[in-house]
Design a protein that fits this description.
single chain; alpha+beta; binds guanosine-5'-triphosphate; binds magnesium ion
């Protein structure tokens, strides 16, 4: 394998909605470029990038995987990413290290919810985009309709640089609007292209589309705009240069046509990836100067200081930790020692490898601008920078979303607890969007993630990769408690047992605070009513008690406790006594502070063909949802709503059955809100039942 330098490298995140055909398209690109001998199919479980057992079983990409092709003396790295809402953070991580995004859109469905999410992410990270309308061989596939939805959502700058030849079953080639020629493809799936003249019946359409493209390119560039007005058109050179500039500045988004399964359109797409998107040299990675907020651009020079950013970690039970990185500067060498700047420690590198799916090829070095991997790093994790000691910049890591749903899990065989924790710890390195913890009261293990399918996949990985099986119990809603009235309370702990007694006494004021304030403790003791050294014990007592809750055992939040008076005993007072007094004051106060329950409310976006919009809104209303807005997306409608989490637990199944699988949704945590009082009884009873006698014992 040749070592490539930055000018001859392109890095692409292949992103888009689930089912648009990203994995199949990567498979076609690999095959057509000769990187693999076999045309892998998602449906047969034979693609390079969906290699994980769980991916093969589900026919969905669940985590980023790396592939590359050598094309025209260049190396194109392709990062296949998941399109399912629960797994989208991996697409963000891939965009973080990409020079361009290959946005794959289903030509039947048009823009879908994940299409918008990845587009927003690419906007945030200023990543240029190329759009591919895929699945053009399918019934009801339509370039016009798909473009209409793209225009509605992303604007007119999404502009075709190709037109399809044939449609649905007869889709067999593309017209290149820049070269003004036609490519048709062998019907045997070999992807073999034949160059030819534009078919006579499409000439008019091609001319019109080319003019529209020229106009759009001119519009995106002030200098070209003037020329365009003077001459009424652009020269071929102006068009090409303008298109490239427009794409780099994210002011033009070219649209190409393909069928990944019929292997139509792959080779012109590879050409486009090379010619339209800037190389790492032309698009230096954004970084921050150490200890400041000043932005710097890190030049992808292979003789510069070494720096490599880890953007993804995979937990392999056999190979150990596999870390994927992009070399942002300098040359990273196998068997060398580098500095982990993020953690300030040194890390020994073993063999560097290039990844073709799971297949590793060892290489002696990897140069700036390229993406590679290394196994068995001891200390370094995702979002960390490996570099020379002299390097004085930092790269902002991917922000991973907080978990939105939490399940109690229990091991199938007793004694597996230890194994589960170890395995979950490693899976968390691979997937920072899961979280596990122990319920402080029931001691149950809680597994939190982005949605039901995310939790199920995590449980399946536990089994397949780490050989531990768990039962998923009911999802847990992270309710909280708070108070709605101020009150003063008294806690007095006094015990006389034989010789030494116990004595603690405190007066505490409890007041509600705004949402999100958690808990504040104020020491307002004057004149030594409680000796200094015992005040922290009072705080500890209240802290412990508030975490155990009052109504239903959920943590009490958003209030202030001010200790303002008390008394003590020269001999009998000690820390434990004041802790008990604090806890008693809490209980006393809560009985008058009108405690109530808070529930998490989610931001929900539902996408579905417009015919379903009425029913879906009715359903969201029935789930206590507040509809925030509704927008048309071509033939689809997007509904935005705020809905309590407890009402969304079964939404995935409902949406699928209500829309025949054509609806999709995205949900993230929004805020906490008071639970309507008529629901309190049910929640409190359920919590008591779940926690058994343990909870009641402590109250
Ligand atoms: N007819 C047709 N089917 C396609 C095409 N591309 C992909 N498919 C099929 O569509 C399904 C989904 O394809 P994938 O490549 O797995 O889609 P994806 O975008 O990777 O989906 P996620 O991994 O879930 O994000 C598979 O059954 C593919 O065989 C295409 O061009 N035409
Ligand atoms: Mg996929």
């Amino acid at each position: 394998m040749k070592v490539y330098e930055a000018p001859n490298i392109r890095n692409f995140a292949v992103v888009g909605h689930s089912g648009a055909g990203k994995t199949q398209l990567v498979s076609a690109l690999l095959f057509d470029a000769g990187a693999v001998n076999r045309f892998g199919r998602v449906d047969d479980g034979t693609t390079v990038t969906d290699y994980d057992d769980e991916e093969i079983a589900r026919k969905h990409t669940l985590a980023c995987s790396l592939a590359y092709v050598e094309w025209n003396k260049h190396k194109i790295n392709l990062i296949d990413t998941p399109g399912m809402a629960n797994f989208l953070s991996d697409a963000r991580a891939a965009l973080r290290v990409s020079d361009g995004a290959l946005v794959v859109v289903d030509a039947v469905a048009g823009v879908q919810v994940s299409t918008e999410k990845v587009w927003e992410a690419a906007n945030d990270l200023e990543v240029p985009r190329i759009v591919v309308l895929n699945r053009l061989d399918r019934e009801r596939a339509s370039v016009d309709r798909a473009l209409e939805s793209l225009h509605t959502v992303f604007g007119r700058a999404v502009v075709p640089v190709q037109l399809p030849i044939g449609q649905e079953k007869t889709f067999r080639g593309v017209i290149d609007l820049i070269g003004m020629k036609a490519w048709t493809f062998a019907t045997d799936g070999s992807g073999k292209p034949t160059e030819g003249a534009i078919p006579a019946d499409l000439e008019g359409a091609a001319q019109a589309a080319r003019e529209a493209l020229i106009e759009m390119v001119a519009e995106a560039d002030d200098a070209l705009m003037e020329k365009f007005f003077e001459a009424g058109t652009l020269t071929q050179d102006e068009l090409l240069a303008g298109l490239k500039r427009g794409i780099a500045a994210s002011r033009v988004f070219p649209v190409l046509c393909a069928s990944a399964i019929a292997n139509v359109g792959a080779q012109p797409l590879l050409d486009a990836l090379l010619s339209y998107v800037p190389s790492p040299v032309e698009s230096p990675l954004k970084a921050k100067k150490a200890k400041s907020d000043d932005e710097v651009r890190v030049e992808a020079k292979s003789d510069g200081p070494t720096a490599a950013f880890i953007w993804k970690t995979v937990a392999d039970p056999f190979a150990g930790r596999i870390s994927m990185f992009r070399v942002v500067s300098g040359t990273l060498k196998s068997d060398s020692t580098v500095h982990n700047v993020t953690k300030d420690l040194s890390e020994r590198l073993g063999h560097l490898v290039l990844l073709q799916g799971k297949t590793q090829t060892a290489v002696p070095e990897i140069k700036a601008g390229d993406i590679g991997a290394v196994a068995k790093l001891k200390e370094s994790l995702t979002n960390e920078l490996l570099a020379d000691k002299s390097v004085s910049f930092a790269i902002a890591g991917t922000k991973f979303p907080e978990p939105v749903i939490s399940y109690a899990i229990e091991p199938k065989s007793r004694g597996d607890e230890e194994k589960i924790s170890t395995a979950l710890h490693r899976l968390q390195e691979e997937d920072p969007t899961i979280n596990y913890s122990r319920d402080p009261q029931t001691k149950e293990l809680l597994l939190a993630g982005q949605g039901q399918s995310h939790i199920e996949v995590t449980v399946a990985k536990l089994k397949r990769r780490f050989g531990v099986e768990v039962n998923l119990k009911l999802p847990r809603i992270p309710y909280r408690e708070t108070i709605t009235a101020s009150t003063e309370a008294h806690g007095r702990h006094k015990k006389q047992t034989g010789g030494h007694g116990q004595f603690g006494d405190c007066k505490v004021k409890f007041e509600p605070l705004p949402r999100g304030s958690e808990f504040e403790f104020v020491d307002d003791i004057f004149g030594g009513a409680i000796p200094r050294q015992f005040v922290p014990a009072v705080e500890k007592g209240i802290q412990d008690a508030r975490l155990r809750g009052f109504l239903a055992g959920y943590p009490m939040v958003d209030f202030r406790a001010t200790v303002y008076d008390g008394s003590f005993h020269q001999v009998d007072s000690n820390e434990l006594s004041f802790k008990m007094a604090g806890s008693l004051a809490f209980k006393d106060g809560m009985s008058r502070a009108r405690p109530t329950l808070l529930e998490p409310v989610m931001d929900v976006e539902v996408y579905a063909p417009s015919d379903y919009a009425g029913d879906l809104m009715g359903d969201l209303n029935g789930r206590r949802g507040r509809i925030g807005g509704m927008d048309s997306r071509g033939a689809s409608t997007i509904i935005r709503a705020k809905v309590p989490m407890s009402e969304m637990l079964t939404y995935e199944q409902h949406l699928t059955s209500a829309t025949g699988g054509r609806g999709s949704y995205h949900m993230e945590f929004s805020h906490y809100e008071e639970v309507p009082s008529h629901l309190h009884g049910k929640i409190i009873a359920a919590a008591k039942a779940e926690r058994g006698h343990e909870a009641t014992e402590e109250v």
